Known about the structure:
CATH class: Alpha Beta
Largest sheet: 6 strands, mixed
Number of strands: 10
CATH superfamily: P-loop containing nucleotide triphosphate hydrolases
Oligomer: single chain
CATH architecture: 3-Layer(aba) Sandwich
Radius of gyration: 20 Å
Strand order of the largest sheet: 6-7-8-3-9-10
Amino acid sequence: MAKKTNQHEILLEAKGLYKTYTQTSGFFVRKTRTIKALNNVSLSIKKGQTLAVVGESGSGKSTLARSLLQLQAIDEGSLRFKGRDMTSLNKVDSKALKRSIQMVFQDPYASLNPRMKIEEILEEGLVIHDLGDKKNRLKKIRDMIKKVGLSVNDLNKYPHQFSGGQRQRIGIARALIVDPELVICDEPVSALDVSIQAQILLLLKELQQEFNLSYLFISHDLRVVRHMADEIIVMHQGRIVEQGQTKKVYEKPKANYTRELLNAIPGKHFKFKLS
Length: 275
């Protein structure tokens, strides 16, 4: 059962993030240009809520996710988790932070070790973070696999024996088994059939309610995030061009780029005018 919490409590806060890359092109004449992957990006994720980051490929979504996971360093800006500077933690606190922030990947098959049984995959995080003895770990693994809609018998199988949707359920179980507070969902349903997408989205919402999770939900598809997110950030070329409550962004978009994304949704009965 989810713990009661202050829904206005800020779990993660980023201010003024900058990240640039240098790209070299040309064969005979080499040219270099600087790409601003993150250009003054600021956001906050509240406890128990979902913040969606939407944009096309190259908008800076993945760079933002890697920066929040501290898989890459930012050039400038501040990152704070529960009020603490994420960039200046000691080894022990850094390990605790990695447990608190987990990720569900876009490609569930590529993210699972094909040589490991599902039980081993789920146990790995528990071992890394010293969570329980063998008996308690096994109990937790069995409980978690059932929570994501799979069977205890599935623990003795390998990733290739499952469908894409089932593998994503395993990926979700792996992320949640170490009891994180924030889960970064990087295009978690884009590699799945449309018929399976709704099942995974519903599962994520149910687990969020049960475990009082916060989600950073990354997607190129505004249609997907409409029913998932409390707030939306729209990114374009490394910048935030629109930010607000999901309903307001969807019904009264302010930025031209947001209108273009909404107009591209199949089956919409009206189109937004571009100024």
